[in-house]
Amino acid sequence: MKLSVGKKAATSSEPPPTRIEAIAKVADYLEAAGVADAQEDARALLRAAAGLTRLELALAPRAPLSDEEARTLSDYAARRVAREPVSRILGERGFWTLDLAVTPGVLDPRADTETLVETALSFLAKKRDAPLSILDLGAGSGAIACALLSEFPGARAVAVDLSAEACAATAANLARCGFSNRASVVRGRWAEALQGRFDLIVSNPPYVRTDDIAGLEPEVRLHDPALALDGGADGLDCYREIIRDMPRLLAEDGLVLFEVGFDQAVSVATLLGAKGFQIERVARDAGRHERVVAARLAASGK
Ligand code: GLN
């Protein structure tokens, strides 16, 4: 896409497009390629290419693009047409109240996952300042750990991931948010190498059925790491593995929060029940899907 002249070749006599003209052109280009939120994405890419805040764009929508801004925007638009998510193109994503770095080696944090943070807050409202110990299994970008540490200022977290890239991304986001002194990052397979007990154990493990991966949106299929998606034949392999270690890791009265696939809440609740957990709540996301399963160990003797 040539921003100065649409689909034809560039000529030097053509005036540079204004910011709103560029947005409209990019939006058309994205829409034609099947991108869902073409207008919104075009704005975000323009703002990043020109280094503008929302306010700066609103105040000067008719300013012309410099050549370099136009080149950068063309490059971003081409990547978006290849269905790379905006967060990956820009290397940043808003999650909860935080701005996090997103790298190619981690799952792009989703708004759905904020349901898990909300659920933690709702259960632990009275313990906001308590010295909670939190364990995040499969931390990825570190989004959940960072959001929880931001809401529980007295808490400490251990973030575990099997992928070295994810461990680096988690550590970078913890540092970016100023939480490095309250967190440690451990590379390992789930809780394998861990000891001790935690008040809150959270996980958004890979839960997509292996056979479903090919049918996912290209943004997910082509750009999220397979390791962060593939939950095995029935999507539940990681839950089984994690739940096995959970009783020895959970503090007395500790809480477990799992993010689950839209149709997996009952299956995950059943797996938890078989290991002696009682289900406290199933929370829905903004799309009304059952997204988070909350459980505690049933009191012994019950
Ligand atoms: N929410 C992601 C998706 O289905 C999957 C994330 C995961 O497996 N934990 O697009």
Provide an overview of this structure.
- The protein has 302 residues and is an alpha/beta fold.
- It has two domains: 19-82; 93-300, Rossmann fold (3-Layer(aba) Sandwich).
- It has eleven helices and nine strands.
- The chain has helices at 19-32, 38-50, 54-59, 67-81, 86-90, 114-123, 143-151, 164-177, 218-221, 237-249, 265-274; strands at 92-95, 98-101, 133-137, 156-161, 183-187, 198-203, 250-259, 277-284, 290-297.
- A seven-stranded mixed sheet has the order 5-4-3-6-7-9-8, with helices on both faces.
- Helix 1 (19-32) runs parallel beside helix 4, helix 6 packs parallel to helix 7 and helix 7 (143-151) runs parallel beside helix 8.
- The chain is elongated, with a radius of gyration of 22 Å.
- The termini are far apart.
- Residues 5-9 have low confidence and may be disordered.
- The site of glutamine has 9 residues, from loops.
Question: Could you provide a short overview of the structure?
Answer:
With 302 residues, the protein is of the alpha/beta class. Helix content is 37%, strand content 19%.
